[in-house]
Automatic annotation (TrEMBL), chain A:
It is a multi-pass membrane protein. Residues 12-22 have a biased composition (Basic and acidic residues). Belongs to the cytochrome c oxidase subunit 3 family. This is Cytochrome c oxidase polypeptide III. GO terms for molecular function: cytochrome-c oxidase activity. The keyword Transmembrane helix applies. PANTHER family: CYTOCHROME C OXIDASE SUBUNIT 3, CYTOCHROME C OXIDASE SUBUNIT III. One of its GO terms (cellular component) is plasma membrane. Its main location: membrane.
TrEMBL record, chain B:
One of its GO terms (cellular component) is plasma membrane. The lineage of its organism: Bacteria, Bacillati, Bacillota, Bacilli, Bacillales. Keywords: Cell membrane, Copper, Electron transport, Heme, Iron, Membrane, Metal-binding, Respiratory chain, Translocase, Transmembrane, Transmembrane helix, Transport. The keyword Transcription does not apply. The keyword Cell cycle does not apply. Its EC number is 7.1.1.9. It comes from the Bacteria. It is found in: Cell membrane. It is an enzyme of class 7 (translocase). This is Cytochrome c oxidase subunit 1. It comes from Candidatus Carbonibacillus altaicus.
Length: 219, 627
């Protein structure tokens, strides 16, 4: 590819390639090594498998969401304002992780770390709200063991929550290990892998919001 | 950026063999681990089969009855599918796929070691029940609600936890091979030049990626119901027992192709070499493999025809199932056409391949018979089904593993297995196999129920069962001959040359024994059957694309072993909290915390591997260039 980019300034495009001033396409820092390329593909494949895993839990939930011999109904349980706030927080954390990757590609280490810390804080507040929410449900009599609906609900939403918690541990580890390290072709794929995972976890939440909460309110 | 250390041979510590294998990330050594572990469980699963056949030799026999029979039945099925068929195929894939595509290792050597150790500990967890007295006894399909503690004790919890661990390992292996085959091919190795075993490995790995997660979800729900008060399969709590069957078979049917597609790949390597012809219809073989995989996801209800999902569902799934016979038929004809007019060498590997075509066609024909729901109501839960799937799984997968073992033994272990013993092994096993299972088709049609530990005299079952049992013992003799052959080869066998069969594909271009970096200089691939192409052009070696240089290698590490060990501790803790004492809950949680801690160390410690210096590689390559 030799055509020059309409924008003369060397900028970074969404698909992970960078154009130099001469217009040559170069891989961004997370993709310059073979290990980096493998990691990126590996995480995508992992996400593909995880999609099927979540799809299975969604299917089980859809099959059992009306199976409630004991305990309150979804209509009486779910409160959309709280779930809406959780959704907004999690989607914002996806945005901040994008900002972190953009800064990483420009080798702005401290800006990247700043956005990652923000991502962590948003993810953590999501998790706190989810714990509050589950606690609230348990007090209303909607528990893991109360009905098939209960087990299916906590299997799906709790499994997503576990993914958020694991992501937070992962991000914290990354921030700790890279606290004194620069952005290199060795460290960059690690950050990039995390951001792919984090987007996936956020995307699953969009489906949970629709299928569990919205359909639970109106369905 | 930290610089990667250069370590000469003298600096690389000599390790004991045990520590070496505990910490290795080399695909060739991991292949050995898979092979020996898989072979061990093959012997164990075979012993379980003999116990069952001994019980069934005579009507109203009391050798192995009731609960014990159910346990042996369950462990035989689970072992053979999860702990034998897949690991032994993984052994062959690990041994040769990187060599076939001109790679120095898998894309994720560390994850490869983790996969093996998860399998190792998963298998161990599944067998711990023999010590605590709660052996899995709900059948390898784990149907609900039979697998709940009220009906089967906690045995099925060992089944669920063991499968969860080894299943995670399998999933990671699938991802690893897809990433390897997509990203790590040598220059010139385009997709349509890949050997067929690489193609089938790629497609089976994609199947693993999409088929194992439903099983994982199903097993989580099973574990929740068994150990944590879940209600998914408890009808009183609003649960639905058919859900398990769907999740299990959405996994279970693609699983059949996960174990048989690589088998097809092995035969597609063996048959051309010993026919001295290139594989007939290579593109058709690739497309047929992909089609089988694609349709394989749309046929799971044929395991559930008698559940009562209605004529429409049964009809659709019946049509999809019969369609699969078309690409499979294409393959059969291509293998025959490959041999047609070829210069055949009837080696042991070739015996298994020809035996496979004969046997597998019979398994395929009964498969089409069962695909028709009205007929299936007659066959369901009888020995007809048992005969059918043993014809496909033994005739396909086990024959291919034997063929692959005889064919690639020189590449894996540097020696040639004895061909005479190999043929004795083949004939005992082949005749024994057909004696055992051919008659079972008729036993099924006469009405003998599967999974039941005995039968009454005077129903016309007596003689047929005795014949079947004698056949099983003949198979056992065949396997013993194989074991003798292995021992004989290690004691008396001579070192094999690098290319003993006059091979066609790239793995035969590596030196004997294969150095840890596989290729000192990466080869250039100029067509299908890359090595054969160069031989025909009069070249002694593959063309290379680079000069000698330092080669980057991954460090060996004990972390995969520890990560799997801690997960196994967690799994046992969660079972034992219900089986023995609630205090074991802390063991479960502790295991999870330890696993996370190991993962933390893996992440925090920089692990950039090391370089083997150029001088050492040059010196090695000059030593005894093999012809």
């Amino acid at each position: 590819m030799t055509t020059t980019h309409p924008n003369a300034m060397s900028d970074i495009e969404a698909h992970g390639h960078e154009r130099s001033a001469e217009g040559e396409v170069q891989p961004t820092i997370e993709l310059v090594t073979q290990e980096g390329k493998n990691k990126q593909l590996g995480v995508w494949l992992f996400i593909a498998a995880e999609s099927v895993l979540f799809a299975s839990f969604f299917a089980v939930y859809l099959a059992l969401r009306h199976s409630i011999p004991n305990g309150p109904q979804p209509k009486d349980l779910f409160e959309l304002p709280l779930v809406f706030v959780m959704t907004a927080i999690l989607l914002t954390s996806s945005f901040t992780s994008v900002m972190a990757v953009m800064n990483m590609r420009q080798l702005k280490s401290s800006a990247m770390k700043g956005w990652l810390v923000l991502t962590w804080l948003l993810g953590f507040s999501f998790l706190l709200l989810e714990i509050y929410e589950f606690n609230h449900y348990v007090h209303m009599g909607h528990t893991f063991t109360s009905s098939a609906f209960g087990t299916a609900f906590y299997s799906l939403v709790g499994f997503h929550g576990a993914h958020v918690a694991f992501g937070l541990l992962w991000l914290m580890t990354l921030l700790l290990r890279n606290a004194r390290r620069e952005i290199t072709p060795y460290t960059a794929p690690k950050v990039y892998s995390f951001s792919l995972y984090w987007h996936f976890v956020d995307l699953v939440w969009v489906f949970i919001f629709t299928i569990v909460y919205l359909m639970g309110k109106v369905g | 950026m930290a610089t990667v250390a250069v370590r000469a041979e003298s600096e690389r510590k000599k390790k004991s063999m045990l520590w070496d294998y505990l910490t290795t990330v080399d695909h060739k050594k991991i292949a050995h681990l898979y092979f020996w572990t898989g072979l061990f469980y093959f012997l164990l699963g075979g012993l379980e089969a003999l116990l069952m056949r001994t019980q069934l030799a005579f009507p109203l026999n009391t050798f192995l009855t009731g609960k014990s029979y159910n346990e042996v039945l369950t462990m035989h099925g689970t072992t053979m599918i999860f702990l034998v068929a897949m690991p032994l195929l993984f052994a062959l894939m690990n041994a040769v796929v990187p060599l076939m595509i001109g790679a120095r290792d898998l894309a994720f050597p560390y994850v490869n070691a983790l996969s093996y150790w998860l399998y190792f500990f998963g298998a161990l967890v599944m067998h711990i029940g023999f010590l605590t007295g709660n052996v899995p006894q709900g059948g390898w399909t784990g149907y609900m609600p039979l697998s709940l503690p009220e009906y089967s004790g906690f045995g099925m919890s060992y089944y669920a936890m063991g499968l969860q661990l080894s299943g995670l390992g399998t999933l990671l292996t699938g991802i690893n091979f897809v990433a390897t085959i997509v990203n790590m091919r040598a220059p010139g190795m385009t997709y349509m030049r890949m050997p067929l075993f690489v193609w089938t490995t790629l497609i089976a790995s994609i199947l693993i990626m999409f088929a194992f997660p439903p099983l994982t979800a199903g097993l989580f729900l099973m574990i929740y119901d068994q150990l944590f008060g879940g209600q998914v399969f408890n009808v009183a709590g609003g649960g639905n027992v058919i859900l398990w069957q769907h999740l299990f078979w959405i996994f279970g049917h693609p699983e059949v192709y996960i174990v048989v597609l690589p088998a097809f790949g092995i035969f597609s390597e063996v048959i051309p070499v010993f026919s001295r012809k290139r594989l007939f219809g290579y593109p058709a073989m690739v497309v047929a493999t992909a089609l089988i995989a694609f349709f394989g996801f749309m046929v799971w209800v044929h395991h559930m025809f008698t559940v009562g999902l209605g004529p429409l569902a049964n009809g659709i799934f019946a049509v999809m199932t019969t369609i699969i016979a078309v690409p499979t038929g294409i393959k059969i004809f291509n293998w025959i056409a490959t041999m047609w007019g070829g210069k055949l060498r009837m080696t042991t590997a070739m015996h298994w391949s020809v035996g496979f075509i004969f046997t597998f066609v019979m398994g395929g024909v009964t498969g089409v018979m069962m695909a028709l729901p009205p007929a299936d109501y007659q066959y369901h839960d009888t020995y007809f089904i048992v005969a059918h799937f043993h014809y496909t799984l033994i005739g396909g997968t086990v024959f291919s593993i034997f063929a692959g073992a005889y064919y690639w033994w020189p590449k894996m272990f540097g020696r040639l297995l004895n061909e005479t013993l190999g043929k004795i092994h083949f004939w005992f096993f082949f005749i024994g196999f057909h004696m055992t299972f051919f008659i079972q088709h008729f036993l099924g049609l006469w009405g003998m129920q599967r999974r039941v530990y005995t039968y009454l005299p005077g129903q016309g079952f007596d003689l047929a069962n005795l014949v079947s049992t004698i056949g099983a013992y003949l198979m056992a003799i065949g396997v013993i001959v194989f074991a003798i052959n292995i021992v004989y080869t290690f004691v008396k066998g001579k070192p094999a040359p690098a290319d003993p069969w006059d091979g066609r594909t790239l793995e035969w271009a590596t030196k004997a024994p294969v150095p840890e970096y596989n290729f000192a200089r990466l080869p250039l691939i100029r067509g299908i059957d890359a090595l054969w192409l160069e031989k025909m052009a009069g070249h002694k070696e593959m063309p290379v694309i680079e000069d000698y240089h330092d080669i980057h290698m991954p460090n060996s590490t004990v972390l995969p072993f520890l990560m799997s060990l801690t997960l196994a501790i967690a799994a046992l803790g969660f079972i034992w909290k219900e089986e023995f004492n609630h205090a074991f809950l802390y063991m479960g949680i502790g295991g999870i915390v330890l696993t996370l801690l190991v993962m933390f160390f893996r992440s925090v410690i920089d692990d950039e591997g090391y370089h083997i210096p150029k001088a050492e590689i040059e010196r090695e390559e000059m030593k005894g260039v093999s012809v």
